Each structure stands twice: as structure tokens, then as C-alpha cells.
Amino acid sequence: MPELPEVETTRQGIRPCCEGKAVRQLRVFEPRLRWPVPDDLPQRLEGATIHALKRRGKYLLLIVDEGAVLVHLGMSGSVRVVTESEPRRTHDHLELEMEDGALLRYHDPRRFGCWLWSDQWEQHPLIRHLGPEPLSPEFTGEYLYRLSRGRQVPVKSFLMDSKTVVGVGNIYANESLFKAGILPGRAAGRIGLDRYKRLVTHVRDTLSTAITQGGTTLRDFVNSSGQPGYFAQSLQVYGREGQPCRLCNRPLSQSRLGQRTTVFCRHCQR
User: What is the DSSP string of 109-138?
Assistant: First the structure.
């Protein structure tokens, strides 16, 4: 699934093509996504100016006068900038045409993403309960320490809970916990303030680096130009189970936490 850096990379890539511009037309070729595309969405967007293209967690938000369109990339979706001459592919389900002729196409083979309308997007059920952004001032070691008191849930599951903080998916949770020297299975409530401060630093650094490098190369993900990301070249533990730890040279271990693959070093993490 595209994670926060992939979504932010997409936002940055398509932003110049749509922000501050009016929509000429939204064409819906396949409305049956995770939730059906609203029948009136093309009419709502026709002629509307996209004042801002924001991101909240893994949702892209196309802000117009009357509300916003919530876009989620699902398991394998992407939004790409294309030319008019580029033929539409089988799983290109929506196409947004701007006033200057720029085209954005939404591609989603598994149809697990969404294009939804909201009059007040901050209060939308998919948005309103989300935790702070990991790169925002609200995300601090003190915040994690306070929220984790008395919690027995594994710290990796705690970190991946969108009510704790948004957008720290499986890949980046593995990487950040390794860099912070914290065992993924340790109870969240048993981790001290200093270690949480260190974890926040590594979450920020890991996500920022991934955004700069264009996201992580996943099997299905491509960015707004149709190219894969390159952060996978920098992964320390994810996908490297059984291989030598880059710090101590001992084999990396693997387990399942919350039905997600977890890779860690028994020697370097505690």
C-alpha cells in the first residue's frame, strides 16, 4: 500500500498541474471503487477552481469553494500526469482535465481507493479521528510518552495506529524503530520519555528522507510521473529478514505483529 511518503510525493508531483486552476471536466470511467464515486461529483467539480491540494494522512484533498474531494490511493492506486495522446489503460478509472488541458489520471487495479465529496472535510468520518501529522510540531516525544502510559499494545502497533499519529505505515515503522533501537514488540507503556524522543526524531528523519527520494519502491506504486520511488535502496531492515544487520552483522529476525511482517535486530533493539 502506498504510505505517507508516496502520497506526499504524488501531491508534490501533481500540485503544479491543478492548484489554482479551474476544472474543465472530471470523467469517471469506473465508479465502483472501495466506495462508489458520487454520481454528482463531475457536476460539482466542473468549472470549480482547486484552491489548494492538501494531504491529511494518506488522503489527498482537492479543496474547492464548496468543499473538497477526498482521494485515497488504496492498495495499488496512483494519480499521474499524462498527455492527451497517451492512451487510457485498463485500470485508469478517473480522469481530471484542467482548464489549460493538463490531465490527471487515477489508476487503481484493485479498486480499493476512493474519490469522495465532503462539504466539511475536516469533519468527514475518515478524517476527523486521525492523530497528528508525523512532521508537525504536535508530534513529539512527550506526546507519545503521555499517550502510551498504561498501554500494553506493542509499540509498533501503537505507532502504526492512525489515532496515535497518521501515516507511519509498516515499512517506516520497521525502519524508525530499528534506528531508535527499540524492539517492535515491547509494550508501548514500558518505553521511557527519552526513548520516545529518539523515536520521534527517527520517524521524522525517515519519512523526510523517503519523501525527498520519491517514496519506497513497492510492487505496485509509481509516483505522479509513472516512475517508482527509490527509498528502498536505503532500507535498513524491512524486507531484509535473515540478512546481516548493518550495525552488528548478526542475522535480522522476523515476526508477525498485528498481521504485519516485522523485521528487527535482537541485538541492536531492546
Answer: TT---EEEEESSGGGSTTTTT----TTSTT
CA–CA distance, 204 with 270 (Å, rounded to integer): 21
Q: Is 58 a catalytic residue?
A: yes
Nearest to 173 by CA among 129, 213, 134, 218: 134
Which residues are CB-contacts of 107 (< 8 A; sequence separation ≥ 6)? 77, 78, 79, 80, 89, 91, 92, 93
Q: Within 10 A of 139 (CB to CB), how many other CB atoms are there? A: 19
21 is catalytic: no
Q: State the catalytic residue, choosing from 11, 55, 56, 58.
A: 58
Q: Is 3 a catalytic residue?
A: yes
Sequence letter at residue 260: R
Please pick, among 2, 5, 154, 184, the residue that the annotation labels catalytic: 2
pLDDT score at 233? 55
Task: Quote the CA–CA distance of 87 and 259 in Å, as a whole number.
Answer: 39
Amino acid letter, residue 122: E
Catalytic residue among 3, 6, 8, 175: 3
Whether residue 61 contacts residue 68, with contact meaning beta carbons closer than 8 Å, is answered with yes
Domains in the chain with CATH codes: 4-123 (3.20.190.10), 141-264 (1.10.8.50)
Whether pLDDT at 224 is above 70 = no
Answer whether residue 219 shows pLDDT above 60. Answer: no
For the entire predicted model, the pTM comes to 0.87
